[in-house]
Amino acid sequence: MAITLVNGIVCDYISAQDRGLHYGDGVFETLAYVEGHFQFLQQHLARMQDGAERLGIPYPDESLFLGDIHKLLQKADAPRGVFKLILTRGQGQRGYRPAKKSIATRICQYSDWPEHIDNWKSTGIDTRICDTRASVNTSLAGIKHLNRLENVLASSELGANYQEGFLLDNSDNVIEGTMSNIFTVIDKTLVTPELTHCGIAGVIRGQVLKIAEENRINTEVRCVSKDEIVEAREIFICNSLLGVCAVNTIDGVKVQSNIITNIIDAALNKRMSLNA
Predict the structure, then answer these.
(1) 99 plus 199 within the same structural domain
(2) What does the longest C-alpha to C-alpha distance in the chain come to?
(3) Spatial distance between the Cα atoms of 74 and 94, rounded to a whole number of angstroms
(4) With pLDDT > 70 as the criterion, what percentage of the chain qualifies?
(5) Do residue 102 and residue 129 come from a single domain?
């Protein structure tokens, strides 16, 4: 089941002149709603506002999004689900150049909780390196913008045998998963790719880095080569729905350890319950 609000009104369509449709001119967030609570709601809203400001998109009063969420909660009446918040630059005239003044389009959508999430969490996942590359663009790095064609193309490579794929940049450095951030253990150090040139700086990625610091786990944020990730003995991914999820194999090679993964997962679950 999906229920959608457009600018606070129950609706499943937008104007054909909306710049989000024409150019991917917007930002979005995906929120987990579990047992009556949102996970890291304020962090998601803050990241959306930061992304909108970096793109020069007018950001509405936060109370409007919170009001949309409340309306959907009443209509959905479910113990858990997925909420997607989208903000576009709104309607515009033909051409790439945005108008000096625009009225943003606000979309809030509820969807049922995906059944596969629980299975992946309990069993781990199989992954591969994708052929599709992540484009380098420092002005967009870190932003969860609506231009996600690279992720779409990379996801189409997965087929039935893989649950997630990893994108490299043109220098053969690992950037992220099609729907996740990635962490690996190299020489007893927890390592995650640097995202200053491309990739999405995930909310859960930020929480994992804080947890590692609190638990005195040696951590590095740096370039991670394809060879390093393929040869890694421990890998996990993270996103807002999965939290932390262990990687079982990468390109058919078995990943042998989950020691730090389990420590981070337990700490994140505790943090989520406190956040609620």
Answers:
(1) no
(2) 55
(3) 38
(4) 99
(5) no
Confidence category of residue 35, pLDDT binned at 50, 70, 90 = confident
Strand 243-250, strand 125-133: pairing: parallel
Q: Residue 242: how many CB atoms within 10 A of its CB?
A: 22
Three-class SS of 36-64: CEECCHHHHHHHHHHHHHHHCCCCCCHHH
Sheet arrangement for strand 26-34 = 9-10, 2-6, 105-112, 80-88, 26-34, 37-38
Q: 219-254 pLDDT, tens per residue?
A: 999 999 999 999 999 999 999 999 999 999 999 999
* Domain harbouring 10, CATH code: 3.30.470.10
Say yes or no: 107 and 175 in one domain. no
Range of the domain at 131: 118-275
The yes-or-no verdict on residue 104 having pLDDT over 70 is: yes
Confidence of residue 273 (pLDDT cuts 50, 70, 90): confident
Write out the two tokens for 218.
């040696």
One domain for residues 260 and 246: yes
- Secondary structure in 3-state letters for 56-90: CCCCCCHHHHHHHHHHHHHHHCCCEEEEEEEEECC
Number of domains making up the chain: 2
Residue 109 and residue 201 share a domain: no
- Answer whether residue 275 shows pLDDT above 80: no
Q: What is the mean pLDDT of the chain?
A: 95
Q: Which of 135, 222, 195 is nearest to 170 (CA)?
A: 135
